[in-house]
Amino acid sequence: MRREVNWCSKCKRKLGLIGFRYRCGKMFCSNHRYSDRHECRFDYKAAGRAMIAKENPVVKPARILKV
């Protein structure tokens, strides 16, 4: 049984057991695992906003009937 061989998306180096999957979905070696090293265009602000919106739903007060 053969295992799948992974390659670094930046330098095309063969990855052994340790490959780092980044938020953009690509695999990187230990040299290119940080976003500033592989010129990633992942939008942290949009991801943070989506996470906050998902975890904190809008709370609306109950309507009060005026007499």
UniProtKB/TrEMBL annotation:
Biological process according to GO: protein ubiquitination
Domain AN1-type: 2-48
Keywords: Metal-binding, Zinc, Zinc-finger
Stored InterPro entries: AN1-like_Znf (IPR035896), AN1_A20_ZnFinger (IPR050652), Znf_AN1 (IPR000058)
Alphabetized Pfam families for the sequence: zf-AN1
GO molecular function per UniProt: ubiquitin-protein transferase activity; zinc ion binding
PANTHER family, per the entry: AN1-TYPE ZINC FINGER PROTEIN, ZINC FINGER AN1 DOMAIN-CONTAINING STRESS-ASSOCIATED PROTEIN 15-LIKE
Function: May be involved in environmental stress response.
Name the UniProt record assigns to this protein: AN1-type domain-containing protein
Organism of provenance: Vitis vinifera
